Amino acid sequence: MSDCTSFPSLAYSSGPERLVALGRNVIATEAEALWALGNELDQSFGHAIATLQQTKGRICVCGLGKSGHIARKIAATLSATGSPAIFLHASEAVHGDLGALHEADTLLILSNSGSTRELGTILLRADHMNIPIVAITSARGSRLAEAAETCLFLPNKAEACPHQSSPTTSTTMMLALGDALAITLMRLKGVTAATLHSFHPGGRLGLDLVTVESFMHRGEQLPIVATDVCMQTVVATMNEGGFGVAAVVDEKGHLEGVITDGDLRRHAHSLRGAVARDVMTRNPHVLFGGMLARDALEMLSDARITSLLVMDAEDERRIIGLVHIHDLLRLEIG
């Protein structure tokens, strides 16, 4: 029986520098191909975007083998960025899954050779249903290229595999093109962070896309005082709120300034007989409606403070809420 533990030492006998060089060569090969892909991108990309953007149904991303794995990831990225998509396995499609295709859909087909046997039936079905096809392929004269409404051709670059048999460089280019399509569509559709959060309510990304309105304190919870109230009332309001801050507003309810624990310490010698306007800090740091929780955390950290008022994005002097550092910690943001 062979000793499996000898394998790492055999590999390492090539020398660590040699192993690193081999890894770097693979990355360099694929990076060069990506540079060529970007440099050669032409108006076909714009045509592909137009076709995908006009899709009334779903974008059905189809592939087989390694291209199929990439197609599945592209479908997931499209859906996650605002373009409804499904993955259609080319082999399963010819065994019943073609029923998933609707006339309002668009096919995005990935095939390096453009001549995969299973594609023939799919292309015939698409033609029968008048479904537009966007293709990603290296083969300009292939059946896929001829059937597609728009073709995104991959540059003729060597695979990173030394035997030129395992798809490596070609699938990397396919993945990059898929990302380019998805993000371009996302920008054209004006997908906002709030919309992304609705697609990603869970996990780390979901937390990163939470807006301050979703967890801020509001209404009667807000420690608000008028400009002319005595400091005894200000201190009582701050203690009751428990945020270490009081917002000072004018007769219209517009923000004039804030009073923090630090302001109380700095004015300790002159608090007797003072009113809120005498002690408050003008032009305080604030958040605005629609800002993300991660932005709130960054602002709190940079300013070295524990609370921030949230202002109406359309009326910059109207207070709509308050965020405390503890709120962010409870959300595990940071």
TrEMBL record:
Chain ranges of the SIS domain: 48-191
Gene Ontology terms for molecular function: carbohydrate derivative binding; isomerase activity; metal ion binding
Keywords in alphabetical order: CBS domain, Isomerase, Metal-binding, Repeat, Zinc
Site (Catalytically relevant): 66, 118, 159, 200
Source taxon at top rank: Bacteria
Entries under PROSITE patterns matching the protein: CBS, SIS
Domain CBS, residue spans: 216-279, 280-334
Binding-site residues, Zn(2+): 89
GO term, biological process aspect, one: carbohydrate derivative metabolic process
A UniProt-annotated Pfam family: CBS
InterPro entries: CBS_dom (IPR000644), CBS_dom_sf (IPR046342), GutQ/KpsF_isomerases (IPR050986), KdsD/KpsF-type (IPR004800), SIS_dom (IPR001347), SIS_dom_sf (IPR046348), SIS_Kpsf (IPR035474)
Family classification: Belongs to the SIS family. GutQ/KpsF subfamily.
Protein name in UniProt: Arabinose-5-phosphate isomerase
Originating species: Hephaestia caeni
Lineage: Bacteria, Pseudomonadati, Pseudomonadota, Alphaproteobacteria, Sphingomonadales
